[in-house]
Design goal:
Elements (H helix, E strand, L loop, with lengths): L22 E2 L5 H10 L5 H11 L14 H10 E2 L3 E7 L6 E8 L4 E9 L2 E5 L3 E3 L14 E4 L2 H14 L6 E4 L9 H12 L11 E5 L3 H9 L5 E5 L5 H7 L2 H4 L2 H14 L4 E7 L7 H11 L4 E7 L12 H11 L6 E3 L14 H7 L1
Parallel strand pairs: 1-2, 6-9, 9-10, 10-11, 11-12, 12-13, 13-14
Antiparallel strand pairs: 3-4, 4-5, 5-6, 7-8
The structure holds iron/sulfur cluster.
The site of iron/sulfur cluster (SF4) has 14 residues, from loops.
Length: 362
């Protein structure tokens, strides 16, 4: 579920030939760093040192790595770089509640993250792909089509570079930027593992949320693999028919199969799944939709986040206050927790209307 605006990479700088690139160390696991050190005939403990410099000290250069000898630093300079991303633009100041960061990849494409501060909580929304193949009708990113999966380093570096620029410590991560995280499954999980690693960034598993539109086989795999990160699923419809209005992915993974996978998650997880429901005027905001949601979800272990649509000038619009009130009143009979969030992110055009989604999930 994207929370970010479209970034049209057709105007990006020319793509660099991958063979001309140095290898980015950011995003490497301890095992991968160890294998790099083996190739250089260096002892294994150098990999542990590098891991600490990358993910605990968050250095930008090899010269800052004080316990690495100079001759080895020179070898590193020839072969590696620290960051695969470069910050090219920041919208908003560090005193504002919301900032948007634009990064350039080594290959020239652009990608974005959003940082939000709310009380004690500082949340970063990271992207997992450039563009997206899922084609949700309300999403600006969808019109880019799919361009590429981000590497582990390109995902983790969004966190590292934004945390270096933030005056407050990042407390939460949501995978709700550009792209469908479960269509870049392995890299997203490795990136989350690096953010959670006790010798590195040390972000608690329940402070990391992976949001999906409902890629059913990947939800099942996620459960089988026993990952502990929070799972959020975009429902955005009270029935198969209404879901199909805005989410063509529902054709491939129909609502009954999605509900089965949600139940499977609930049966194996200590934590409830978070379901996101965006209220779009005249599309998903009818009183009958609220009743259908109650029928569908009462008896299931879940949390529901209701998010009035954050307009971006497209064909969907924000419901009236009256329609929102009516919808919420029906949900008072819910046996599951319901939260309603109003968007605060439109001032920086943060997205396809879904900025509020990541706020409520974090
Ligand atoms: S098209 Fe759908 S899955 Fe893809 S980024 Fe947009 S909201 Fe997320």
């Amino acid at each position: 579920m994207s929370c970010l605006p479209i970034r049209d990479n057709r105007n990006s700088p020319p793509v660099t030939d991958p063979k001309d690139q140095k290898i980015a160390l950011m995003g490497m696991t301890l095992e991968q760093l160890t294998s790099q050190m083996n190739e250089l005939n260096e002892p294994t403990f150098r990999a542990n040192q590098l891991f600490g410099w990358l993910y605990r000290s968050c250095v930008d250069t090899f010269s800052e790595m004080r316990n690495i000898p100079n001759n080895l630093k020179q070898k590193f300079e020839k072969k590696f770089i620290v960051h695969p991303l470069e910050v090219v633009h920041v919208t908003g100041s560090s005193s504002e509640p919301t900032q948007k960061f634009l990064f350039k990849l080594q290959t020239g494409e652009m990608v974005e993250s959003v940082l939000m501060r709310d009380g004690d909580r500082t949340t970063i929304c990271v992207s997992s792909q450039i563009g997206c193949a899922v084609d949700c009708d309300f999403c600006a990113t969808a019109s880019m089509g799919f361009q590429k999966n981000l590497s582990v380093g390109e995902i983790v570096d969004q966190f590292i570079l934004v945390s270096k620029a933030s005056l407050t410590r990042i407390t939460n991560v949501v995978f709700m930027g550009m792209g469908e995280p479960f269509l870049n499954y392995d890299r997203v999980i490795t990136a989350a593992d690096l953010m959670n690693h006790q010798d590195g960034i040390k972000l608690g598993a329940q402070r990391i949320t992976i949001s999906t539109v409902g890629i059913v086989p990947k939800i099942k795999r996620y459960v089988e693999e026993k990952h502990r990160y929070k799972l959020a699923i975009s429902l955005n419809g009270s029935s198969q028919v209404s879901r199909l209005k805005t989410m063509p992915i529902a054709k491939k993974y129909p609502l009954d199969k999605l509900l089965e996978s949600i139940d499977y998650f609930s049966s194996r997880s200590r934590h409830p799944v978070t379901l996101e429901y965006v209220l779009m005027a005249g599309v998903t905001d009818a009183k009958e939709d609220a009743h259908k949601l109650l029928d569908m979800l009462n008896g299931r272990r879940c949390k529901l986040n209701v998010i009035p649509y954050n307009e971006i000038g497209g064909k969907y619009s924000h419901p009236s206050d009256e329609r929102i009130e009516t919808f919420i009143n029906v949900l008072e009979k819910a046996h599951f927790p319901v939260t309603v969030r109003r968007s605060k992110g439109t001032d920086i055009s943060a997205g396809c209307g879904q900025l509020a989604v990541m706020e409520s999930a974090a």
